[in-house]
Amino acid sequence: MLPHLGEGLRMALGERRMEGPIKRGLGALIFRYLAIHRFPWPEGKIPAPRGTFKTPSAGWEQDRKLLIELIERFAAAEPGLFAVEHPSFGRMRPKDWDVLQYRHLDHHFRQFGA
Fold it and tell me: What is the pTM of this model?
């Protein structure tokens, strides 16, 4: 799970691009807003964009250190450095990335009791 969380942060930082068509238009805008900012996330598994879960684990300790580093880099990054588009949510603003990363990390940490 730690490499998956790292992939999400790398995507936000513009270092990793996910496969698949980017959603655009009013529908994507409404879906993004509701999914990121309003709807509660379901318990358990949420469908992820194609291409996630491809990063192999380097072992618990190495994965943990890398995730901490990515969280710190994301927190310190200038908003202009964030990726512009997300494969499931389309065009993203820095605030969208902030909330999405918080909720994504929180979802999986709760999922595993961390």
Answer: 0.87
